[in-house]
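Help needed: design a sequence for this.
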């Protein structure tokens, strides 16, 4: 019997963001004990964020996306390797070519706008159903928080209950790139609120703005973190009673740790998760972050601070309901149907 192998295909850099890579890392962490996992990424990806323990192969810059399926087949046995792809370059034509070559394919589709040929489609938004997707009759679906792409330690901490406390420390993270430098605006707003004693800021490897470092230099209550391990991220989050974040995968991580959350979106692929979080009453909805300045951030922060304790308590209870800790086993079960 052949060893079960998975090729994880994802890219990430300052132009496209790092979310595809981070979701891939979460899946690798869930599946690496049961499969031989190999990350395949383009050589212009932000390689520094890839855990050193991973097996990694680089797609040469000379290989264009239309030629990539053929390149994969020349380098990886089609019958021995399952492909899990996360990225908008892996469109309908790409998927058709991958399937023609004989690969089993899983695609993470967070936009629901293309015709899928994948054997399994993953989308962990809380509001999507099969009717949102164009897919083949054989396609299976892994949808909602039951298939949340969370790293294992977040799944474990999600099982614990938590009570709301007075807001003294805040957590801010706007992804690996933060195109609009929302980080600086949110931090400046928190600095203006005297009841906030400490501001913890997590930035990504592709974050290029300089203003936040000047803010940290001027304010002793601002601390910047970069390239933290899973355990370290959880440790920082657990110090905080408030988070200001986008509706990307980090919103699920913060819900796992549990705190009051200001959450909005700034790119299209965050809107479905945002709608689900809002519908399930686990966030203070901020809407479109591209409309935010320092004053607007101050307004919604004060709204959260002044919210009644029963509202806060219910939000934390709702967060606990999202994740039951069985995500890993569900992924194993559905992937095993392809072997």
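Sure. Designed sequence:
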């Amino acid at each position: 019997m052949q060893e079960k192998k998975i090729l994880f295909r994802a890219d990430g850099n300052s132009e496209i963001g790092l979310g595809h890579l981070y979701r891939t890392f979460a899946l690798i962490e869930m599946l690496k004990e049961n499969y031989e996992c190999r990350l395949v990424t383009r050589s212009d990806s932000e390689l520094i964020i890839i855990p050193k323990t991973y097996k990694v192969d680089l797609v040469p810059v000379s290989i264009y996306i239309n030629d990539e399926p053929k390149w994969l087949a020349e380098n990886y046995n089609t019958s021995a390797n399952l492909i899990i792809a996360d990225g908008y370059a892996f469109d309908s034509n790409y998927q058709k070519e991958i399937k023609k070559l004989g690969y089993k394919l899983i695609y993470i589709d967070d936009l629901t706008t293309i015709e899928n040929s994948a054997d399994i489609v993953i989308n962990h938004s809380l509001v999507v159903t099969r009717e949102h997707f164009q897919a083949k009759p054989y396609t299976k679906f892994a949808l909602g928080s039951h298939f949340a792409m969370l790293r294992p330690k977040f799944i474990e901490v999600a099982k614990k209950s938590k009570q709301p406390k007075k807001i003294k420390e805040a957590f801010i993270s706007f992804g690996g790139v933060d195109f609009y430098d929302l980080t600086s605006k949110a931090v400046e707003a928190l600095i203006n609120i005297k009841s906030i004693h400490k501001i913890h800021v997590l930035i990504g490897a592709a974050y290029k703005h300089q203003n936040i470092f000047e803010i940290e230099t001027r304010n002793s209550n601002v601390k910047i973190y970069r390239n933290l391990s899973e355990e370290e991220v959880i440790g920082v989050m657990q110090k905080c009673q408030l988070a200001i974040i986008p509706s990307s995968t980090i919103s699920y991580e913060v819900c796992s740790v549990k705190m009051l959350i200001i959450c909005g979106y700034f790119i299209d692929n965050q809107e479905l998760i945002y709608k689900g979080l809002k519908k399930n009453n686990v966030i203070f909805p901020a809407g479109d972050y591209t409309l935010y300045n320092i004053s607007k951030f101050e307004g919604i922060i004060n709204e959260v601070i002044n919210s009644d304790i029963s509202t806060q308590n219910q939000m934390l209870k709702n967060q606990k309901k999202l994740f039951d800790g069985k995500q890993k086993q569900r992924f194993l079960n559905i992937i095993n149907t392809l072997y």
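The chain is about 35% helix and 20% strand.
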